[in-house]
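--- STAGE predict ---
source: upstream dedup step, 1 unique chain passed
mode: sequence only
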Amino acid sequence: MAVASERNGRAVGKLYAAKGHVVYRLRKAARRNQHRSPPMPIHLAVTCLCSLAVVVLAPAPVRAQDTGPAGAAGAPLNVELVGNRFAPLEWAEMTEAQKAMTRHVLDGPRTAMAGPFNVMLRSPVMGDYAQELGAQVRFNSSLPPPLREMAILMVTRHWTSHFEWNAHKRAALAEGLDPAIVAAIAAGRQPAAMQPGESALYRFCAELLETKRVGDATFAAAVAAFGEQGVVEIVYTLGYYGLVAMLLNVDEHPLPEGVEPELEPLAN
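--- STAGE serialize ---
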């Protein structure tokens, strides 16, 4: 800030130093146009010019840090993190980068740091970018919420991530996804009956997860159902929640107390 102020001060000083040249030019113009309307007084024109330079070059005022819902800036947060191999972090032991990521998570649409965030905090700069992608995928997707949750369940089933399945099974049912579809995905089989959008989504996700490619017919059906934006957002959803599943599996993240694993190992 001091360097910027000094630089601006030098620039303004140069403008004032050029005052004599400006006065000369203004007087010359006044003599040339004296038969026209009376010009602005020279000293007033110079003053306006220099004042404008000061306003333009002056540094912007420093804003107070946005406190947001996570509490006053710099105030400790009561974060209840959960982990297994990665021990739960406490606010007092976090680095500044970890605290910044924590505030960004809690200042967004999420209300808690459940799931993968305790692991993400071990690499807080990357973790901060990852959690922002996750917020966009979860809360700002163009996909209908039941279908978004269906895609999440499919990649969760692919990775057999118990914590993630428990959380998003409840979310999928709350969003109105057919319980029979949820049960079929849990069992690792194709649902017997689906609506056209559900069928297009299932085929796209299953093909991409199982073969790492999608055929032309599968792609065309997904674009017809969701548009190109929707297709890309399906891939974002699978990618982000695949990342979450891997983080949780590496941590051997525990389920909430009293909850038993629901997913059996897949046959293949």
